């Protein structure tokens, strides 16, 4: 074999070894990087989680932060946290609460996900037995929204809000929806107990944004059902939960105080327990017009009964007998009686509803109310 040919073969062998060596080195490099990444990920898994807190105040390289249970601490800010201001959300170490970094997130709720926003269609004629209450709410809510110039001419300021109080099922929500419909207002319904239970640490901010939403959708009515859950008298503010409820309540008062008297947003509160309300919420300038919504009397029961049976086919019977047996019933219970009586007729394959259907329906509603009272007594 010629020297020239031998040299070619040798060059090929050397090239092959070189190529293989390069490939092995590249493979080793990739494997080293993979091992390094896995080790870093393992260390991240071992590291304790960071806590989300709110910055209340900044003082040099230190800050006052509020942790999720409502307690506040004066802590250090790490150099990598960046520029902070009051209201920012930050991540802090759980052991010493040092601020590690700022969370670049929106401070606003998608507030319409947490409240009921609607344009009600309930008419005044759909509400029976509450003529006096309708007249009062028309004076203090409907008239200022429809004719604000009238109040300017006379030189008086209408109430900013109304408190509807009375037993459950008597028509407080219906009154609020009807006045929203009559003024073509957006109806924003908030349940006080849900606000307290679901939004620990966030209640005050949500209240603020609910009022901002109302201003954007004005004319609007903010209806706060079970307002006593937010605005009950408190002898002491001990636990973090009680402090949070108090912060939410104070924000509610601040928002009501911030309204102009002739603004086109009104606040209507509703409660079954006026006796436990904090006097601050019903003082002049806030929800200072109180409207009692009672259990219906005989004449009111008759009106309510006629409203709920106007589309039903009824056999002739002594109406007073049925009305007397519903003494002490709320409007909601009278509606339930009419619905249940209709079901008794359907089960019997009839289209006409008889006296016996109503009597059985009354007994059923009474029995359900008794069971509910027993349940509340045992577990309430």
Structure report:
It is built from twelve helices and 13 strands. The model has no long low-confidence stretch (mean pLDDT 84). Helix content is 48%, strand content 16%. It folds into three domains: 51-102, Nucleic acid-binding proteins (OB fold (Dihydrolipoamide Acetyltransferase, E2P), Beta Barrel), CATH 2.40.50.140; 111-292, Rossmann fold, CATH 3.40.50.300; 298-374, Helicase, Ruva Protein, domain 3 (Orthogonal Bundle), CATH 1.10.8.60.
The stretches of 5 or more residues where confidence is low (pLDDT under 50) are none
For the record, the CATH architecture of the largest domain stands as 3-Layer(aba) Sandwich
Radius of gyration: 34 Å
Please give the domain count: 3
* Strand neighbour order, sheet with most strands: 6-8-9-10-7-11
The fraction of residues in strands falls at 15-25%
Oligomer: single chain
Give the tally of β-strands: 13
Short description:
The protein is 48% helix and 16% strand. It is of the alpha/beta class and 380 residues long. The chain folds into three domains: 51-102, Nucleic acid-binding proteins (OB fold (Dihydrolipoamide Acetyltransferase, E2P), Beta Barrel), CATH 2.40.50; 111-292, 3-Layer(aba) Sandwich (Rossmann fold), CATH 3.40.50; 298-374, Orthogonal Bundle (Helicase, Ruva Protein, domain 3).
């Amino acid at each position: 074999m010629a020297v020239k040919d031998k040299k070619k073969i040798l060059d090929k062998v050397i090239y092959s070894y070189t190529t293989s060596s390069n490939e092995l080195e590249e493979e080793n490099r990739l494997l080293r990087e993979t091992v390094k990444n896995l080790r870093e990920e393992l260390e991240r898994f071992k590291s304790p989680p960071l806590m989300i807190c709110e910055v209340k105040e900044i003082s040099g390289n230190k800050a006052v932060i509020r942790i999720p249970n409502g307690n506040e601490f004066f802590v250090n800010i790490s150099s990598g946290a960046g520029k902070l201001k009051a209201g920012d959300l930050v991540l802090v170490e759980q052991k010493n609460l040092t601020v590690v970094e700022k969370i670049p997130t929106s401070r606003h709720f998608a507030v319409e996900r947490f409240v009921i926003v609607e344009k009600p269609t309930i008419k005044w004629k759909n509400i029976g037995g509450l003529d006096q209450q309708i007249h009062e709410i028309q004076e203090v809510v409907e008239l200022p929204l429809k004719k604000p110039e009238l109040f300017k001419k006379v030189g008086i300021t209408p109430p900013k809000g109304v408190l509807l109080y009375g037993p459950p099922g008597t028509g407080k929500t219906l009154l609020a929806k009807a006045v929203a419909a009559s003024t073509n207002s957006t109806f924003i319904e908030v349940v006080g107990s849900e606000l307290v239970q679901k939004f620990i640490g966030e209640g005050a901010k949500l209240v603020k944004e609910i009022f901002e939403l109302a201003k954007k959708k004005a004319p609007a009515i903010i209806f706060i059902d079970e307002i006593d859950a937010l605005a009950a008298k408190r002898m002491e503010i001990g636990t973090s939960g009680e402090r949070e409820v108090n912060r939410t309540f104070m924000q509610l008062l601040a928002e009501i105080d911030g309204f102009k008297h002739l603004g086109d947003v009104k606040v209507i509160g509703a409660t079954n327990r006026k006796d436990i309300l904090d006097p601050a919420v019903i003082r002049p300038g806030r929800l200072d017009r109180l409207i009692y919504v009672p259990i219906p009397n005989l004449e009111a029961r008759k009106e309510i009964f006629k409203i709920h049976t106007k589309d039903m086919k009824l056999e002739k019977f002594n109406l007073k007998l049925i009305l007397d047996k519903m003494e002490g019933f709320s409007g909601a219970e009278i509606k339930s009686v009419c619905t249940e009586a209709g079901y008794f007729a359907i089960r019997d394959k009839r289209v006409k509803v008889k006296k016996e259907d109503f009597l059985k329906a009354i007994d059923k509603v009474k029995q359900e109310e008794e069971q509910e009272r027993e349940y509340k007594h045992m577990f309430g």
